[in-house]
């Protein structure tokens, strides 16, 4: 058999790994959208590097758009097999894919106004809401720790990856020509000591591991430090400078962590009396999904629930729904906190909030997670004095800060912990994906130091026989 790495290869987005058995059966692990890749982004999302009609099965590790966001396009181009995932992943994917389609249509319409004025060819969204809805009919639920027979030769087991509600490591048992091969795809690995979720679950012994490496050279701070840092930037921006605090945050996961941290500050009686807006209709839906799955919470959140039935709600919090309400926030000079998607500031309402507040030195843009270097968030984190937003240049006069420790991805200690359940002598090879190349090189050495014998860093569209 062979594996071809069609995404998240020496970068952190567009997760897609195609396994092709000697029999010809093709199994795709994730079908994620590329985000924040600059001028390459459009081309990468429009061309898979393989024929969707030739894929028999799709296994989805979790519902983040960089892992599931191109499923509707895959289906539109001819894929018609089942999409295996956990129940919570299916629930989240429904709202995320519909929201993704809506955002694409809105952002394309907005960009086309500028392009039309400048005589440029008009853009088309990657897929429509109708196509997103059509793809959802293919989803099939597989429970955690259930051994599911995809074919007589291929068996699937999901184990909890602790990264997101429903996130899973994909464990495959593949029997070919009398030989059994155990292959694990980590998906995205969560943190041991996550703010909200249980820790990643040990997974069965594997011969080959496809392992994410986003934070392969970083260590995160503890949750207390996150609360302290968040409180400091709220005070500095809104109380002292009388400005607005804009926080780009993914609607699923990161937004709920922010709300939980702010709620914790209120429980301590130290949360500033301000307006706190979550400007993302998707975020409210995702928060409701999380509230519906208390079984995923860690012990700390479970304890909070005994004294506070809503750990994501507090005084001054308001969820924004309509576009009109969102636009009105930019006309209101009152100091406030605006949490809005997307996390890399590449799309959605947060891009408009940044555009309307980036010129004010009293304002702060707070990045709370990883940003691909070519994304708007990446340019802001790098300290660029000028950025392009919707094709127009803006001076960066607002203050840019970051809380880098707020990540649903494990750091290098978490990742090493994740693979510590494996016997290094049995693992034939580890493939590092979902990471920047320089980070992966450092992390590769850390893995080798733990006794694993072969660690490879595949490049985009590389095919490797196993």
TrEMBL record:
Residues 255-380 form the Beta-Casp domain. Transmembrane segments: none annotated. InterPro entries: Beta_Casp (IPR022712), MBL (IPR050698), Metallo-B-lactamas (IPR001279), RibonucZ/Hydroxyglut_hydro (IPR036866), RMMBL (IPR011108). This is MBL fold metallo-hydrolase. The lineage of its organism: Bacteria, Pseudomonadati, Bacteroidota, Sphingobacteriia, Sphingobacteriales. The keyword Hydrolase applies. The keyword Ubl conjugation does not apply. SUPFAM superfamilies: Metallo-hydrolase/oxidoreductase. GO terms for molecular function: hydrolase activity; RNA endonuclease activity. Pfam families: Beta-Casp, Lactamase_B, RMMBL. Residues 13-230 form the Metallo-beta-lactamase domain. PANTHER family: CLEAVAGE AND POLYADENYLATION SPECIFICITY FACTOR FAMILY MEMBER, INTEGRATOR COMPLEX SUBUNIT 11. Keywords: Hydrolase. It comes from Mucilaginibacter xinganensis.
């Amino acid at each position: 058999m062979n594996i071809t790495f069609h995404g998240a290869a020496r970068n952190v987005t567009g997760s897609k790994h195609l396994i092709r058995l000697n029999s010809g059966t093709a199994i795709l692990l994730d079908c994620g959208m590329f985000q924040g890749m600059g001028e390459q982004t459009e081309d990468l999302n429009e061309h898979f590097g393989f024929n969707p009609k030739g894929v028999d099965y799709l296994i989805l590790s979790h519902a983040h758009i960089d892992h599931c966001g191109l499923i509707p396009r895959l289906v539109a181009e001819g894929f018609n097999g089942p999409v295996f995932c956990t129940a919570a992943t299916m629930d989240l994917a429904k709202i995320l894919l519909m929201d993704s389609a809506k955002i694409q249509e809105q952002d394309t319409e907005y960009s086309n106004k500028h392009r039309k004025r400048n005589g440029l060819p008009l853009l088309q969204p990657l897929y429509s809401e109708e196509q997103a809805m059509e793809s959802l009919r293919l989803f099939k639920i597989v429970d955690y720790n259930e051994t599911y027979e995809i074919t007589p030769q291929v068996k699937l087991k999901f184990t909890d990856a602790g990264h997101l509600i429903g996130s899973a490591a994909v464990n495959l048992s593949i029997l070919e020509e009398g030989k059994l091969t155990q292959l694990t795809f980590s998906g995205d690995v969560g943190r041991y000591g996550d703010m909200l979720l249980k820790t990643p679950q040990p997974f069965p012994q594997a011969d080959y591991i496809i392992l994410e490496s986003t934070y392969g050279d970083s260590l995160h701070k503890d949750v207390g430090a996150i609360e302290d840092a968040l409180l400091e930037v709220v005070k500095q921006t809104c109380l002292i400078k009388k400005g607005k605090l804009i926080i780009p945050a993914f609607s699923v996961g990161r937004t709920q962590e922010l709300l939980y941290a702010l709620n914790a500050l209120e429980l301590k009686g130290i949360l500033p009396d301000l307006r706190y807006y979550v400007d993302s209709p998707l975020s409210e839906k995702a928060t409701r999904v999380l509230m519906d799955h208390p079984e995923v919470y860690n012990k700390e959140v479970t304890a909070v629930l005994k004294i506070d039935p809503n750990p994501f709600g507090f005084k001054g919090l308001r969820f924004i729904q309509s576009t009109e309400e969102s636009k009105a926030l930019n006309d209101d000079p009152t100091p406030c906190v605006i949490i809005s998607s997307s996390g890399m500031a590449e799309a959605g309402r947060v891009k408009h909030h940044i555009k309307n507040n980036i010129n004010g030195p009293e304002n702060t843009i707070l990045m709370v997670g990883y940003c691909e270097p070519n994304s708007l968030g990446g340019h802001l984190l790098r300290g660029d004095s000028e950025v392009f937003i919707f094709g127009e240049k803006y001076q960066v006069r607002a203050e840019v800060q970051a809380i880098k420790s707020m990540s649903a991805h494990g750091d290098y200690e978490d990742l090493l912990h994740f693979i510590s359940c494996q016997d290094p002598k049995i693992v034939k090879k580890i493939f590092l994906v979902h990471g920047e190349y320089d980070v992966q090189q450092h992390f590769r050495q850390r893995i080798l130091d733990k006794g694993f014998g072969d660690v490879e860093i595949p490049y985009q569209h590389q095919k490797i026989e196993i």
